[in-house]
Specification:
With 437 residues, this protein is α/β, with parallel strands linked by helices. The protein is built from 16 helices and 15 strands.
């Protein structure tokens, strides 16, 4: 239900504070202020889904935008160019750290506020949703004295939370830990954190060159965005440094391909890459309204194929006053790949993609789909949510298509086709199917 404000009596400062506070209280990760012709729509992104919250009348929306720009340190006189800002404030005893972005549209300026919440990072990697086997792999990875560890996934998949958790575990008085980020999202005592500024030439590549003269033990690069940064990161890792970074790829195999596309020499990549942590965020089933239902045919087949487990029922949540459409909170799905000597040799020798895929997933590496299905049978999320997020291979996609087609065929009414008479025109089998549809 949309929130109702009395804009004639409520000061714009109170309106903004109430919107931000309500967003933080509801666990929203982002607040969208969308201008439309006659008003402005405010939406919260809760558990990855945008939910309507408020409609701001046309007479108020300019003042609302101006207030947000003032709070975030933007130029309120500039409405033709995109701007970025930040807000650090306390509202009703809630400490808030936010990143703000403005974008000019044909209906006015659109504002998006990202609410930063790294409380999960402070709780340690044990509380990030890793399965027991994946957690063991991650702990092995971060013990390495040199090499590259990559955390990959789409925007908003929790990469920064995982990276900061690892950093806090590695942050001891015995090491010199330096980060280069854009922006610095979470300040950590004992770590030298640098924010890039492209306008003055302080780029990832330039900062990395300087960092290597600062006697670092561990280097964190906020994101590998270009070929130059990738090459410097690789060379830093093979000269005795542990490098931690993020990359926008869907899984471990795509990560290897992306780095080779960035012109990183295969022999350097093979010797430097220690492991890849790929992840996505799935909505968590609401425990209050959770129920069980019989599993349908394709669900049984997919779980059996990927986990080797026979299931008869699955959990679902029908929705209640404490959740959004049956979901409350999110849980991470992981794919953790440790680079073995066999995989290093395959990368170095330029093994074909299909053969490399078989090699990567023939060992104990669990795919994102397998990890998600494991959390489905543990009643942490739904199979619909996992299949929405994870790209299926051809075999899994074929299973769903076959079962769905069979279901459609069984639901079609049976019809008796009359024998053609001299006054009727006989049709071909293909035309007959079209007529039935």
């Amino acid at each position: 239900m949309l929130k109702q404000f009395d804009f004639t009596k409520m000061p714009i400062t109170d309106v903004v504070n109430e919107i931000i506070y309500n967003a933080a209280e509801s666990g929203a990760s982002d607040i969208h202020f969308d201008p439309i012709e006659t008003n402005m729509k405010v939406r919260f992104r809760i558990d990855g889904i945008l939910v309507d919250y408020l409609v701001v009348p046309d007479s108020v929306k300019k003042n609302l935008v101006a207030r947000l720009k003032i709070l975030s340190g933007m130029d309120i006189t500039e409405s033709r160019l995109p701007q970025d800002g930040a807000i650090k404030t306390v509202i009703k005893d809630v400490n808030l750290d936010m990143r703000v972005s403005s974008l000019p549209t044909n209906e006015g300026e659109k504002i998006v506020i990202r609410i930063l919440d790294y409380s999960s990072s402070s709780e340690g990697i044990e509380n990030l949703g890793f399965t027991e086997s994946n957690l063991v792999k991650v702990k092995e990875l971060i013990k390495e004295p040199n090499g590259i560890i990559l955390v990959t996934g789409a925007t908003g998949s929790g990469k920064s939370t995982t990276v900061y958790s690892i950093l806090q575990r590695l942050n001891t008085s015995e090491v010199n830990l330096v980060t280069v980020e854009d922006p610095v999202e979470m300040s950590i005592d004992g770590i030298n954190q640098i924010q890039v500024n492209s306008e003055i030439g302080l780029t990832f590549a330039n900062v990395l060159r300087s960092i290597l003269r600062q006697d670092p033990d561990i280097i964190m690069i906020g994101e590998i965005r270009d070929t130059e940064t990738a090459k410097i990161a690789v060379r830093a890792s093979i000269t005795g440094h542990l490098v931690l970074s993020t990359l926008h790829t869907n899984n471990a195999l795509n990560t290897i391909e992306r780095l080779t596309d960035m012109d990183v020499e295969r022999y350097l990549l093979a010797s430097s890459l220690n492991g890849v942590i790929s992840q996505k965020l799935a909505r968590r089933l609401c425990p209050k309204c959770m129920k069980k239902r019989p599993a349908i045919d394709y669900e049984k087949k997919i779980v059996k194929k990927n986990l080797g487990i026979d299931i008869e029922e699955l959990a679902y949540s029908e929705g209640c006053d404490e959740c959004v459409a049956g979901y409350k909170g999110r849980i991470a799905l992981h794919e953790v790949l440790l680079i073995t000597q066999e995989i290093r040799d395959a990368i170095s020798n330029g093994m074909a993609k299909d053969d490399l895929r078989k090699l990567v997933y023939s060992g104990d590496t669990k795919t994102l789909l397998q990890d998600g299905l494991q959390k489905v049978i543990e009643n942490k999320t739904s199979i619909e949510e996992v299949l929405r997020l994870v790209e299926l291979d051809d075999e899994d996609a074929a299973i769903i298509m076959q079962v769905e087609q069979a279901s459609v065929n069984t639901q079609l009414p049976t019809q008796t086709t009359p024998t053609p008479t001299p006054t009727q025109t006989s049709v071909s089998g293909e035309d007959e199917e079209m007529l039935e549809i």
